[in-house]
Amino acid sequence: MEQKRIAIYGKGGIGKSSTASNVAAACADEGYKVMIIGCDPKSDSSITLLGGKRIPTILDLLRQKIDVKEEDIVFDGYKGVKCVEVGGPEPGIGCAGRGIIVAIQRLKKVCKSIDDMDLIIYDVPGDIVCGGFVAPIRKGLVNEAYILTSGEYMPLYAANNICKGLAKIDTPLSGIICNSRSVTREEEIVRKFSEEIGSKLMAFIPKEQIVQDCERDGFSVLEKAPDSSVAGVYRELAHAIMSNDSSVLPSSLEDERLRELTR
Amino acid sequence: MAEKDISIIHPRPSSIVAALYTLRDLNVDVAILHGPPGCSFKHARLLEEDGIHVVTTALDENGFVFGGREELSTLLGKVNEMFNPKLIGIVGTCVSMIIGEELSEPVKDANLDVPVICVEVHAGYPNNTKGVLIALESACDAGVITDEELERQKVLLKEATNVEKRHGAASKEYLVPSRGDLKYKVAEKIINYLKEGKKCLTIMNAKKETGYMFADITVAINEVAEQLGVSDNVINMANVDDTLGLPRVRHHAISIMNDFREKGIEIHEIIGGMDEYPVTGEKVSELIAEKYSDFDFAVITGVPHAIPMDNLQNMDVISVTNGPRQVHPLKDMGHSNVIVEIDLHPKTLGVSNIVESEFGATMREVVKDMQKTEEA
Hints:
Oligomer: heterodimer
GO molecular function (chain B): oxidoreductase activity
Number of strands of chain B: 10
Protein name (chain B): Ni-sirohydrochlorin a,c-diamide reductive cyclase catalytic subunit
Organism (chain B): Methanolobus vulcani
Domain Nitrogenase/oxidoreductase component (chain B): 21-157
Radius of gyration of chain A: 17 Å
Strand content of chain A: 15-25%
Helix content of chain A: 40-55%
Pfam family, one (chain B): Oxidored_nitro
Number of helices of chain B: 15
Order of helices and strands of chain B: HEHEHHEHHEHHHEHEHEHEEHEHH
Largest sheet of chain A: 8 strands, mixed
Shape of chain A: globular
C-alpha cells in the first residue's frame, strides 16, 4: 500500500494530540507500522504512547549542538509506534517556525525508518501563524490533511479558515473529524459543515470522561481502556483513515452561513 | 558545540554569496536573490561584471511579514522577458529562509519554459562551502549537473573546508588582517636568488578565476629568469587541467594555458583542475620528493596554505595570496615572505586573459632598475 502521511489540523485545545495518539495506537493494534511526529513546541503529542514519559525533542538536542542520530530522536512507544517530538524554543524567544523547518529537515536526513512506515501522523500546532508551521505540507512530507473540530462556533470558524489555507497551498482535504464537546445537534452541524465545504465527516468522537482519565495516567484509551466504547470509535476512525482514498480541495463558507449553521 | 569547533569572530565569506558564485560557474544567465534589497550587494555587483544578471525581489518589512511568493513569481516573469535566459537560479537569503519561503511554488506560478535552479540557502552556516554544496545539489536535482560531478565536487568541498580549518581563515578564533610584506623587497630577493643561480619552483594553486592574476606571477618570474639567462633554473607547476570541473572552470584553464603558450612559458607539471586547489597538495609533495627536492626556493600562489610544508622544509618559501587574513597563518606555516594581492578577485571577473598583478609588475620594474644600476 502507498504510505499515508497525514496532518491533523484544528483549533488549539480541540483534541488534536489526543486524537492523533489514539488513532496511532489503534493502527498499531491492527499491525500497521506507525510514526507520530509532534510539531508543536509544547511537545506532548506522543506522551500517552510512552506511558506518560517525555522524550528529548529534536530541537532540545540541536540546541546542545549534538550531531543528532536517529536513535537520539526516534523512540518506540505503544506497540512499536515510533514517536518523534520536534520541540521548540522557550516561549517568547527565537523563532518556533524556523525551528520546525530545521527539525523536520534533520529528521528527513537521519531517520531511515521513516520510509518503512505505513502511516505517519504529523500533529501540527493549531494556529498556522507563520511559514514554518506549514513546512510539513509544503516540503511535500504530508499527502493528506484532516481537520478536527467540535460543533461550536469558534472551532468551526478555525476549521473554515484552515480550509481557506489548504486551498491556497493546493493541499487537498481528506475529511473532517468531530471531537464532541456535547453541544446540541453537534453531529448534524459538523456533518452539514463537512458537506458544504465539499468534504465528509469521518467520525464523531463522543465526549467521554474515560479519554481524560487515561490521558491523566499517561496512556491512550486503546491501551488503558481497550474495551470502552470510545476505543471502538477510535478503531473505526483508524480504519476509515487507512482505507480513505478520496480527498478534495475544500471550499470555505461565508461567516454568515457559519453562524447560521451553529445557531 | 562540538569540542573541535572554535568560535571564530572575524567576518568570513557568506554561503549565500558562495551559492551565487556557484550558479555563475553553472552558467546561469540570471540569478535572483529572494530577500532584502541590499543582501549580498557587493558580490552581486561583481558578478554582473562577470557577465551574469543579478536581481533581487527586494523584500521589505511587508514582505517579511506577508511573504514574497507573488514578488518572486512576478520577478521570474519579468527577467524572462528582459533577458531571455536559458537557465535561471534563485538563491534564498536569511530572511526568506527564516519565514519559510518555498522557492519552488513561485516557479510553478510563473510557469516559464526555462529550467530554474532553486537554492534554499541562508548565511548562517559556519563554513561557506555549504552554500556551494546546496547549490550543486539543487543543480543536480534540476538535471543541470550529473551525479558523478556532484560527488566529485563534494569531495573537493570537504577538503576545501579542511584546508581552511588547518591553515586558513577558519584556523583561529580571530585573525588580524595584514597587507603582507613589501612587494619590492621580496621582488629584489627573488631576482637576487635567480642571479645567484638558485633553482626556483613556481607553484600556482589558484581557485578558479583568481588564476587569471596569479598566473601573471608565474609569467613574471619566467620573464625575469629569461632576462637573467637562467630560464632553465625555473620549473613551473600549475593547476590548469582543462578536462576537469564545471564548464566555466574548464574555460578558465583553457584561456590561461593559451596565454602561457603565447608567452612561451612551459608548464612542466599540471597539478590538477582549477577547482582542485584543495587537493593538489599531495601531488605537489610527491613531485617535489621525486624530482625537485634539491630546489632552493618556491613561490606558491593562489591558495598557498593548501600545499603541505613536509617536502618544502629545505626551501625558502615565498607565497602570494589575495586574503589579508591569510598572512599570519602562512607565516606560522613557515613561509618566509607573504605577499598580498589586494582586490585581486574583482580584477579577475569578466576576463579571459591573464591580468597583470602588482607583484608581477613590481618584479618587472625592479629587475629593470637593478640592471640599469649595474650598467652604470
